[in-house]
Amino acid sequence: TFKAILPLQSSINDSAGIARTYNVLGYVERVEGNDSLALDWYQKALDIRLRINNQSGIAASLINIGFIYKKQANYEAAIRQYHLAAEIYRALGDRRGLIAVSNNLANCSYEIGDYLAASKFARSGLMEAEELQSLDYQMHLNEVLYKIYDATGKNACLLYTSDAADDSLRVDLGGRRIIK
User: Fold this and answer.
1) Helices H, strands E: what count in the chain?
2) Residue range 43-83, pLDDT digits in tens
């Protein structure tokens, strides 16, 4: 198991490696439904990453912690984590990280019924995802937009997608289109 790696990483003072291992252990606990244990591992990873000033690792840890809070329906705490991660990704110029944050913020905002904010985050992330041809995030962000329009009772909505996303899904819907 990954726990067996920790003594070796400790013996060689591999702090970054220990943080990565803690992150993996958090993921395993999360998948197994042990949110409190996952949160503990993610927090340990964050503590190390803060100590060694690993900015991208800090942002990743904040997203993971936010995910647990979101899963626990603690949306305000999740949103705080995501905003902190966004600040770091912005400073690093990490556009993919910002797309991930936009997706998470859009989903949290949707869950609390703040459809205006959810739409803003989804559209912002979607524009970036299209530019970077991030097909998975195009799909996720379009899904959030659809849920918003569905929840607000709109009969039709314009969802943005790229030809590349259409190809990936093996459909030919002509790029941008209206979905009801």
Assistant:
1) 9, 2
2) 999 999 999 999 999 999 999 999 999 999 999 999 999 99
3-class state of residue 178 by DSSP: strand
Contacts of 23-32 with CB under 8 Å at 24 or more apart are 23/60, 23/61, 23/64, 26/64, 27/64, 28/2, 30/64, 30/67, 30/68, 30/71
Quickly tell me which residue has 């992150």 as its tokens. Answer: 23
Token pair for 35 = 């949110």
Query: What are the residue ranges in the chain where pLDDT is below 50?
Result: 155-158, 160, 166, 168-180
Phi-psi label, residue 176: left if phi above 0, alpha if psi -120 to 50, beta otherwise = beta
Q: How far apart are CA 178 and CA 156, in angstroms?
A: 7
Tokens of 51: 């100590």
Question: Which residue type occupies 72?
Answer: Q
Any residues with CB less than 8 A from the CB of 24 and at least 6 apart, and which?
2
Comparing CA positions, the residue from 130, 167, 133, 132 lying closest to residue 145 is 130
pTM to 2 decimal places? 0.82
